[in-house]
Specification:
Elements lengths: L1 H13 L15 H30 L7 H21 L5 H5 L5 H21 L8 H32 L5 E7 L1 H4 L4 H8 L1 E8 L9 H17 L3 E5 L5 H11 L6 E3 L3 H15 L5 E4 L5 H36 L5 E7 L5 E7 L23 H9 L6 H7 L3 E3 L6 H10 L12 E3 L14 H16 L3 H14 L7
Helix pairs in contact: 1-8, 2-3, 2-6, 3-5, 5-6, 9-10, 12-14
Length: 488
Amino acid sequence: MYFNRLSQIAETEVHAETPVAGSPRLYVSYKNIEAVVGLVDILLITFASVFGGLLYQFLWSAQNSGIVVNLGIGLAEGLLYAYVASSRGLYRLPVLLAPSRYLSRIFVTLAIVVLFAAIFLIFLKGNAGLSHGSMITSAVLQISLLLLARWLAEKTSRSLMAKGSLPGRRVITIGEPSELMRLSTAMLFRYFGMNEVARVSLATTKGSISDDVLVDIDRALHAARESGVDEFVVALRWSSKELLETLRERLRASPLPAHLLPDYTIRSVLGQRALSTSGPTLCLEIQRAPLSTMERAVKRALDFVCAAVAIVFLSPLLLLIAVAIKLDSKGPVIFRQRRNGFNSKQFVIYKFRSMTVQEDGAVIAQARKNDRRVTRVGQILRPSSMDELPQLFNVLKGDMSLVGPRPHALAHDNEYKVLIAKYAFRHHVKPGMTGWAQVNGLRGETGRLEQMVDRVKLDLWYVNHWSLGLDINILLRTCFEVLRHRAY
């Protein structure tokens, strides 16, 4: 039952202090705190090697071993120690919060590193010019500084947690009541680096999966869209296979990753020390995000740079189109309409007004050939897709991407998600100004259901095969596709 006790301890730590209003706050994410402490250890070990050599030379020996030699050895020892300590989980937050329990591991790790360095120097046959006394002095200073650093790391970590300045991954927890009652918010943060935004308890019953369970899962999906969380956390008994499969299938409507936590039985068997040094590796990934963090960063960088450059170079054209629209017909220059974006989160799309109507309701009629609602300026803008140019500002804001599945009006989304399987999977990436479907001939009106089915297939292919090269290829092909005047 130690998990309940640990949860109480963690909760006490989180709420032990109250932040002072107006005081400067230092933020270090849960993910980065390991790297920060590791970097400090490398610097301290290197410093101790240099200073220890100088101290030994000043007090006991007239032999000059050289600062450069001590610096090189200290840096090598620091890098090796940080690597070994990280692989053994000695930089995880539970270890930092309770360093006294892991002093033996820290001491043994440093001893192994120093011994390895000594053996290496022996093989050099003493050519490095470093005495044994200098190495012993440096080692004593290194362990002393490491212990001091761990004490400071404990105090700093507790202070950051109390002030809310140590954020983790924002998650929504979904699980059975029996598992959730043994899983406190503080434990999720301390051992898994997760900030719980909300938790959804599934109304489980013996036998088949009830409709109430599906309603609960949909409630979690809605909360994820509204709260902007990073992932789902699933807390089920690992023996609940049917419930897990139902949950996995339902969560596929969201682009967020999902992880299955070890259940209470497994945590009890592993014990506290295993959790402290293993942590996230015990989670099972049951759903991956379509794009990794690095891929999203690369795609966003391409979007931002290209959209900004395009707006600057096309500004005279944008101004000319705006004046023409204003002179041609009554109404605003920019047409605004709600669309579903990434993770089905709504945003307002911008377009040059090309029609006499500005529909944004439950029923919206698609533009057709010789549509009387299209203005005279619109007859020029729509075939060339110049009416879409204001969406560059949507891209700049981050609501859209240059390349992705084209966003449809809410009325059409509500219609097609019922008629077409996996339609919602289009929202696993940001919608785009152009897409794989558009450069493959499916641009413009989709009057028949078969046309939309084909478009969805191409959109899903893009989601599953994204690459930077594919985006560039689609952008180049779009330049030729707009000349074919498929839209009206």
